[in-house]
Amino acid sequence: MAGRVIVITSGKGGVGKTTTTANLGAGLAQLGRKVCLVDADIGLRNLDVVMGLENRIVYDLVEVVEGHARLRNALVKDKRLETLYLLPAAQTREKDAVSPDKMAELVRQLAEEFDYVLVDSPAGIEHGFRNAIAGADEAIIVCTPEVAAVRDADRIIGLLEANDLSNPKLIVNRIRPRMVRKGDMMDIDDIIEILAVELLGVVPDDEDIIVATNKGEPIVLNGRGRPAQAYRNIVRRIEGEEVPFLSLEEAGFMDRVRSFIGIGRNKSH
Amino acid sequence: MQGREAVVFRGDRGGVSVLVNRDAPLGVVVEELRRKLSSAGDFFAGASIRLDAGDRPLDDVEKRVLHELIRAHGLTLLDADAPAEPPRRPAPAEAASRRARTENGVSADDVLRAASQDLLEDERCLLAQRTLRSGQRLEYDGSVVILGDVNPGAVVVSTGHVVVMGALRGVVHAGARGDVHARVIALRLQPTQLRIAQYISRPPDGHQPHPTGPEMALVVDERIQIEQYVP
């Protein structure tokens, strides 16, 4: 039975697609699943860097598609996890070096061998995006709590639907509970209300993620803080488990209750 | 033809027309038509469509290419050589007299007769059973009812009324051909911008409207006014 091909996309750049792809892939591989990460950002490859695998690349996706390299030779095996592989993007080529048809064929081939094929999409809605979604069965949208990111995510969902990729799942990345509580940041409900898609998880903003990303170590592998926990929860939800949403929303709610009591007391004085 | 679209979709009385820019090369026309049809998803599925090349000469090969493309997307192609029906907009006085007649109360028979005589031309309406997302645009010659939301970044242009059975957060232009009697009704009216005929309005800066119930926008005294919708 073929594995699941999931494209991770956002529309807007810089919202954390690549970090999310790396962590979900590592998290799934930790559970023993065979996972292949595909970097579809041709010309601006990043996933190998975030995974700390840059120096092991021999061949890339474009060389495979053009028939200059065999798929199995281009796959880079992760240095920590036995069942995690990366198909790197080409750094020196243009995005249109690959067509959506070729890309679909490639991920189909990978899906025969792996339980999960996670495709890291480039930002934007042009050729690279169309390549990334070609052959995908499911989509995960990464969105930060910013109006512009939500707007782009909405556009992307529309485009996905037009390409028969309905019911995408949403990851809200880089949320800052304190700012949300003060009303300075969009909260999850605002985002869900506009996008009207199923929430897969919420990842808090955390400096540890930046540190881990720069070291090429997905935080899910050895982090003990809330971001790592958030990624692990998302992984379990992808696997079909029902995992309650914890910490963030609850903390916000408790604080709201507390502030209500506070107001009440002030009035009685 | 920089900046000008090679292919434009238009809804009018005769159905959907594809207008082809006379200056655009065939390759561009085909590519853009393909892109628009596929990005429209199943929006046009089953619709009848007319190809209108204006005074652009299309040879048989070009025609065949475009026809096949349109059919491949599940659309029915109407006779391409038939001229697009000119918009038969009733003169204002004529329309007014018609409206008056309706308001005076007419029997069911009258309504049927009116329909058969194409007198209910003003009642054309499109039911869109979807949420319009950012970047999506719906244009229609007639009124529009949307069973879903209109998200920020989405645009609805209608020559009649627009009813949104959901949250309206995008841009709506009702009465786009100058009908100042057009109305915009939404269960949650929080538009980025509203236009009725030639009037434009937007919510005041820094003030996000939080309606408590369905609202209606209409032109009163040369201004767009929003009031609670009372059926």
Please render the helix and strand layout as text:
The complex is a heterodimer of chains A (269) and B (231).
Chain A: E1 4-9, H1 17-30, E2 35-39, H2 47-51, H3 61-65, H4 71-74, E3 76-77, E4 84-87, H5 100-113, E5 116-120, H6 127-133, E6 138-143, H7 147-162, E7 169-175, H8 177-182, H9 188-195, E8 198-204, H10 207-215, H11 219-222, H12 226-238, H13 248-268
Parallel strand pairs in A: 1-5, 1-6, 2-4, 2-5, 6-7, 7-8
Antiparallel strand pairs in A: 3-4
Helix pairs in contact in A: 1-12, 5-6
Chain B: E1 7-12, E2 15-20, H1 26-39, E3 48-52, H2 60-72, E4 76-77, H3 92-103, H4 108-116, E5 125-128, E6 137-140, E7 143-146, E8 155-158, E9 162-168, E10 171-174, E11 184-189, E12 193-196, E13 199-201, E14 215-220, E15 223-228
Parallel strand pairs in B: 2-3, 3-4, 5-7, 6-8, 7-9, 8-10, 9-11, 10-12
Antiparallel strand pairs in B: 1-2, 11-14, 12-13, 14-15
Helix pairs in contact in B: 1-2
